[in-house]
Specification:
Length: about 290
């Protein structure tokens, strides 16, 4: 199965990333949100609200009463509520459901992390969470592009957010947000991103097939034959690719790399994500010259 291959223009960027992640600096995301109303939100919700607040400001978008009707939300996540659900399970086992905190009990569903973003800003176009292992952040971009092409929204906030269990090694932690618009209706501030996904059950055993799909897909998007590709994958041969990052517990790494490549680096680049379960996603980034 292959996803639609549509592109989006990126007009605003925001992040809440640990120090060293994609050449970024960690900041106190709570100070970006203010003193009231956020203390008891799940950490992932705070990350996403903080990075989106910065992305909207970066895009010079001011949301207020009634002007969020044409905004959609597409957020990728894998681990953003795992620790929260583990705590809920423990509380119910040790006590009962009535002992759950009223502040966190509503987040029994992973979808409510992105929904909190829509509630915060009155975004009523649509609100979708993508949870495919490792590739969810790139798939959220593809979903946003398709929604824009169908006229379901004029802008889509595309994000990726993770907040892992503390015992996870190599886990993603933080959030990235992009303000996107249809590529053919605006002059992009940062550039355009095109995304495609595919499912190949035995991809780990067939690296040649992976490379072939990647280059065949890129050939439909660009005439350049030397686009640098950053591979995010498990147990890969780093020497075969321009750059390599071992896939962690989550989908944030690829989104952070896309953000970095939009801000600096070559005019054309790509990020390829491979999950151990056969999910593949490829993002092609064409950075603006400005």
């Amino acid at each position: 199965m292959t996803s639609p291959e549509l592109s989006v223009a990126v007009t605003g960027l925001g992040s809440a990333l640990p120090a060293g992640a994609a050449d970024d600096e960690w900041f106190d995301y709570r100070s970006r949100l203010g003193r009231r109303g956020y203390k008891y939100l799940p950490r992932a919700a705070q990350y996403l609200l903080a990075s989106t607040k910065d992305a909207l400001a970066d895009a010079s978008v001011e949301l207020g009463e009634g002007n969020g009707e044409d905004f959609g939300v597409a957020v990728g996540t894998n681990e953003s509520v795992r620790h929260l659900h583990a705590g809920m399970d423990s509380t119910i086992r040790d006590e009962n459901a009535e002992a759950l905190s009223p502040a966190t009990a509503p987040y029994f569903s992973v979808n409510l992390i992105a929904s909190r973003l829509g509630t915060e800003h009155g975004l009523r176009g649509f609100n979708v969470s993508v949870t495919t292992p490792h590739t969810a952040g790139v798939e959220a971009l593809a979903l946003g592009a398709r929604s824009l092409s169908l006229g379901r929204a004029e802008r889509v906030i595309v994000g990726a957010v993770e907040s892992p269990v503390a015992s996870f090694g190599g886990a993603d932690d933080g959030s990235v947000s992009l303000v996107t618009e249809a590529a053919d209706t605006t002059r992009p501030r940062y550039g355009t991103v095109r995304a495609a996904s595919r499912f190949v059950p035995d991809v780990a055993d067939d690296p040649d097939s992976l490379r072939r799909w990647c280059h065949e897909t890129l050939s439909r998007w660009t005439t350049a034959d030397d686009v640098p590709i950053h591979l995010v994958a498990p147990n890969a041969n780093a020497g075969q690719w321009a750059a390599f990052t071992e896939v962690g517990h989550g989908c944030l790494t690829a989104a952070a790399l896309i953000r970095r490549n939009l801000m600096s680096g070559p005019t054309e680049s790509a990020v390829l994500v491979v999950s151990p379960y056969g999910n593949l996603s490829l993002a092609y980034i064409q950075r603006s010259d400005d």
